[in-house]
Amino acid sequence: MELKVGDYVTRKSYQHDIVFLITKIEDDIYYLTGKNIRLCADSPLKDLQKWEEKEDVEEQEFLKRIEVDSPDRNDYFYLPGKILHLDADEDYLKRCLKYYDETKIWSVGFCEPEEKMASRIKELLKQYNPNILVITGHDSYHSKNNDKNDLRNYKNSLYFVNAIKEARKYEDSHEKLIIIAGGCQSNYEELIKAGANFASSPKRVNIHALDPAIIASRMSLSDINKNIDLKNILDTTKYGSDGMGGIITKGTMYVGYPR
């Protein structure tokens, strides 16, 4: 079997549970990125099976479920919150920006490695003055000593924590700047303690590429004078409260009259 960069594959040892894109081949090791799940992995050729492009019914049903209705056209006008999105994965960033655009939300995004995000946070916050900040990319939990509290057991959680802390130095109010942070299997508790309103992953599970954007869009379109329905918003994500959690926060959308 011949596989090349750009092919989609699944892993036999994981019962073909996730579809991956081959991003690099080096020294007979195939480097993989999840097609829909924010997960990086590597594998020998013998464990890979080519995934034939076909309709992904489960993914199509999920995308249908997360479609956002724009506010009703009536005598009022609506000003959704602005989103600044930092993502370590360029393909996921493009998907998230497309999702914001489809929901008619103002957004701007930058592709930045996890370890460099903290150094750019203040500059970007000052330039764009967003209501909502998304800090995401890839992460993973390595259970060598079975200590979920130790940030050293996570690939990128410490970088996310540092980026959140830098953002909170700029704006410490959870109402004035809503922060959504984390990737697959991130240290949820530490991200929340650092100052995130929403974070992954309470059960250390993988999350969908769009999950941070789903939360951000709901916060953008929620009334600034009302507390959100936290459970309802979390339930719109791929794995619900297993994958994403957060605190009750007011929305960011102003409603005005007349149009």
Description:
- The radius of gyration is 19 Å and the shape is globular.
- It is built from seven helices and 13 strands.
- The chain has two domains: 43 residues; 191 residues, Cobalamin-binding domain (Rossmann fold, 3-Layer(aba) Sandwich).
- Helix 2 runs parallel beside helix 6 and helix 3 runs parallel beside helix 4.
- The longest helix has 14 residues.
- It has 259 residues and is of the alpha/beta class.
- The mean pLDDT is 94.
* CATH fold annotation of the largest domain: Rossmann fold
CATH class descriptor name of the largest domain: Alpha Beta
Q: Provide the structure class.
A: alpha/beta
**Gyration radius, in Å:** 19 Å
Terminus-to-terminus distance: 61 Å
Let me know the number of strands: 13
Give the oligomeric state of the chains in this entry, treating copies of one chain as homo and distinct chains as hetero: single chain
Question: How many domain units?
Answer: 2
In CATH terms, the superfamily of the largest domain is Cobalamin-binding domain
The topology string of helices and strands comes to EEEEEHEEHEHEHEHEHHEE
Hey, roughly how much beta strand do the residues contain? 15-25%
Biggest beta-sheet profile: 6 strands, mixed
Weakly predicted, low-confidence segments: none
Helix count, DSSP H or I runs of 4 or more residues = 7
CATH-derived architecture of the largest domain: 3-Layer(aba) Sandwich
* Mean pLDDT value: 94
Q: Work out the helicity level.
A: 25-40%
Strand order of the largest sheet: 8-7-9-10-11-12
Query: Which overall shape is indicated by the principal axes computed on the Cα atoms?
Result: globular
